[in-house]
């Protein structure tokens, strides 16, 4: 049997516990970390005051702003009460409802939650109201299972008997008013929530929450065991072990559950996941736990920690009404600034957008330019999503690289990132060529070569400039010349291929015509394709075209010593064509 659970998660919870203790000492409210960012569900809220008057509030989440929009009849102070009442009246999950038919979704007699459509479709009736309050008036009757009953016995000395007088007052108010909400200016035609709270001391709300929660805090009390007078149970958060999921059981153990935690740990863990759910609701799904400062830093996708950091990271997602941890890791010695500045160069010398070619110094800037140039601004929002709604090639590139990119930029783990980025860049360049997005091709190719320099390669802007200058001189002079290196050869092939394709008379001419050259596995095949294209287009090419004649002659006679490098052919293909160079241009 495993007691205590996942080590990294426990480390995060320990930091969370220290954080709420610190806030409790500072402001007198240990739950402030949770309540300050708690967002009640969309709907209409009523608070029935002790004097019988009613305060109404309408709440709707602004998802873009990550905050609720409130329409209050009694100021923000009442909203704070609603947040408190709402937080302490929640169900652990819909599967653990006080109402067996799950129509009423609150956990105590001081609150009454329903979906508005249950008021109009007949699901909510007097029978369901009576059933709800009857269960709450005598909770012990509900617990027929011995282990469930034992959990209630554990908490009963703390919470005591139910205040029957207050319960009946709440029951009577609901029965007399719930079907007449129009009297309070509330439209019940929607599908959001109607929530009613009865003003009471906050300690009573907490007390009644404990009465419910302590019997539901574990996943299933059947798994509970006692060790040294301490109760251990199966965590109810981020784990769903039930009769429909037997594959999660550890069959080789005496106790088949994955791991067990104490009651106190379960209470803290519930608060921990409440905090995470609040952040997910606000759009903050990257959570960093600073082990040096015992602090928690929540960030939205695309945002970065701007200070040095060591600790733990978890990535969360809200799935329907539950929260899940999608990813977790330990981070050691994270730095916000790049270990050296990234210089994005116009390597080819053909780009139009000059502003983007500059120095990038930190990881936020690096992600922004990488996302824009290579991933069409689709990477940041899809680091952890399964439903990626983009074209198939872009989706493939995101999936094959996102883990490595995230580890590099967010966790400081650089191993293998150069190869990953190179592969995704060349894939993107090829896809853009196939689709005829030549401006994108140039930007993407420049980015790929700039990355190579960043990771230890040479400045290819200077190299291509030299190749181009040398090649231009050779094709513009009479007499014998020859190509002097493999790099120059590939560049020349790219120039020649582009020229051939420019002669094609098709109305819908595609750059994918160049793919056979980019895909050639050896020089023999490459030369064969060049000869085929020459035979296909030589009827258009004048015999006095000096530039073409020199270029074709040099390419045809070159003996390649290494392997074919398609990206260097692409470099020549996407660069401005020397045969069409305006300086000293000749007639074809």
What's this entry about, in short?
By secondary structure, this protein is α+β, with helices and mostly antiparallel strands. The protein has 20 helices and 14 strands. The chain has helices spanning 7-27, 32-35, 75-87, 117-120, 126-137, 139-142, 146-159, 164-177, 202-216, 263-282, 363-375, 392-411, 417-434, 438-454, 460-475, 486-502, 515-518, 523-537, 546-557, 566-574, and strands at 43-48, 54-62, 67-72, 111-115, 193-198, 225-227, 230-234, 260-262, 286-290, 295-299, 309-319, 322-334, 337-343, 359-362.
What does this structure look like?
This protein is of the alpha+beta class. The protein is built from 20 helices and 14 strands. 45% of the residues lie in helices and 15% in strands. The strands form four sheets. It has a five-stranded mixed sheet.
The main sheet orders its strands as: 3-2-1-5-4
**Would you identify the regions where 5 or more consecutive residues have pLDDT less than 50?**
1-5, 240-256, 584-588
Task: Supply the number of helical segments.
Answer: 20
Number of strands: 14
Strand content: 5-15%
Question: Mean of residue pLDDT?
Answer: 89
Structural class: alpha+beta
Gyration radius (Cα, Å) is: 34 Å
Shape: elongated
N-to-C CA distance: 83 Å
Helical content, roughly? 40-55%
The biggest sheet, with number of strands, parallel, antiparallel or mixed sense and barrel status, is: 5 strands, mixed
List keywords for this structure.
four-stranded antiparallel β-sheet, five-stranded mixed β-sheet, disordered N terminus, alpha+beta
């Amino acid at each position: 049997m495993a007691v205590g659970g996942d080590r990294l998660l426990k480390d995060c919870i320990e930091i969370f516990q220290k954080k709420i203790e610190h806030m409790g000492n500072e402001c007198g409210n240990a739950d402030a970390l949770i309540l300050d960012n708690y967002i009640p569900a969309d709907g209409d809220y009523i608070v029935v005051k002790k004097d019988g008057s009613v305060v109404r509030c309408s709440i709707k989440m602004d998802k873009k702003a990550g905050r609720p929009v409130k329409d209050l009849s009694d100021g923000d102070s009442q909203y704070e009460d609603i947040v408190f009442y709402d937080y302490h009246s929640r169900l652990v999950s819909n599967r653990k409802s006080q109402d067996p038919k799950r129509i009423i979704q609150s956990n105590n007699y001081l609150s009454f939650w329903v979906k508005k459509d249950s008021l109009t479709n007949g699901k909510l009736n007097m029978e369901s109201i009576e059933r709800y309050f009857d269960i709450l008036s005598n909770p012990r009757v509900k617990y027929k299972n011995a282990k469930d009953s034992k959990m209630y016995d554990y908490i009963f000395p703390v919470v005591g008997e139910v205040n029957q007088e207050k319960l009946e007052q709440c029951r009577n108010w609901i029965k007399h008013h719930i079907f007449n909400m129009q009297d309070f200016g509330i439209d019940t035609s929607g599908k959001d929530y109607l929530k009613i709270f009865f003003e009471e001391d906050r300690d009573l709300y907490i007390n009644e929450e404990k009465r419910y929660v302590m019997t539901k805090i574990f996943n299933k009390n059947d798994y509970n065991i006692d060790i040294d007078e301490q109760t251990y149970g199966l965590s109810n958060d981020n784990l769903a072990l039930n009769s429909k999921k037997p594959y999660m059981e550890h069959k080789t153990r005496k106790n088949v559950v994955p791991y067990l935690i104490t009651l106190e740990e379960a209470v803290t863990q519930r608060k921990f996941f409440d905090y995470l759910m609040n952040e997910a609701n606000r759009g903050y799904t990257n959570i960093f736990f600073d082990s040096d400062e015992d602090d928690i830093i929540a960030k939205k996708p695309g945002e970065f920690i701007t200070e040095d950091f060591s600790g733990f990271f978890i990535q969360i997602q809200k799935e329907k009404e539950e929260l899940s941890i999608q990813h977790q890791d330990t981070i050691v010695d994270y730095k916000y600034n790049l270990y050296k500045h990234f210089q994005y160069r116009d390597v080819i010398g053909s780009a139009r957008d000059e502003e983007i070619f500059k120095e990038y110094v930190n990881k936020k800037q690096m992600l922004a330019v990488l996302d824009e140039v290579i991933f069409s601004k689709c990477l940041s929002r899809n680091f952890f999503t399964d439903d990626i709604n983009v074209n198939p090639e872009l989706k493939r590139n995101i999936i094959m690289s996102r883990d490595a990119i995230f580890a590099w930029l967010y966790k400081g783990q650089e191993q293998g990132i150069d190869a990953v980025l190179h592969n995704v860049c060349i894939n993107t360049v090829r896809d853009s060529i196939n689709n005829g997005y030549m401006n994108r091709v140039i930007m993407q190719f420049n980015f790929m070569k700039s990355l190579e320099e960043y990771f230890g390669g040479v400045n290819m802007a200077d190299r291509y400039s030299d190749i181009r200058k040398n090649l231009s001189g050779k094709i513009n002079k009479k007499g014998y010349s020859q190509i002097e290196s493999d790099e120059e050869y590939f560049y020349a092939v790219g120039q020649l291929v582009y020229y051939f394709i420019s002669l094609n008379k098709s109305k819908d001419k595609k750059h994918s015509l160049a793919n056979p050259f980019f895909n050639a596995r050896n020089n023999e095949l490459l030369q064969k394709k060049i000869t085929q294209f020459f035979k296909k287009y030589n009827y258009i090419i004048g015999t006095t075209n000096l530039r073409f004649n020199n270029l074709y002659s040099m390419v045809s006679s070159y003996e390649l010593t290494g392997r074919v490098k398609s990206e260097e052919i692409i470099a020549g293909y996407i660069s401005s064509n020397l045969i069409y160079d305006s300086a000293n241009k000749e007639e074809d």
